[in-house]
Amino acid sequence: MRNARIPVLVVWGAGDPFFTPAGAKAYLRDAPDADVHIFEDAGHFALETHLPRIAPLIEDFLKSLP
Question: Is 44 known to be catalytic?
Fold first, then answer.
C-alpha cells in the first residue's frame, strides 16, 4: 500500500477484543490518506451491528474512486 498509494477505507469497531483501534490507525503509516472510521460503540462484527452507519461510508468511498 505504501508504494501503490491506493485508496483505502478502514472501518473498525473500538470494542473488538482481538483487533484494537491501534490496528486501524496503523494503516495510516502505509496509507496516510486512508479514510479511517473507528466506531466506539462497535465490536468485532461492526458491519453486522452497524450496517446502516457503515453502508453509506462504503458507498461514498466507492463513488470517490476514479
Answer: yes
Catalytic residue (one of 8, 15, 43, 44): 44
C-alpha cell at 2: 505504501
Give the separation between CA 62 and CA 58, rounded to whole angstroms: 6
| DSSP letters for the chain | -TTT----EEEEETT-SSS-HHHHHHHHHH-TT-EEEEETT--TTHHHHSHHHHHHHHHHHHHH--
Per-residue pLDDT tens digits of the chain, which is 66 residues long: 889 989 999 999 999 999 999 999 999 999 999 999 999 999 999 999 999 999 999 999 999 998
Residue with cell 479514510: 35
Nearest to 9 by CA among 61, 47, 60, 52: 61
pTM above 0.85, yes or no: yes
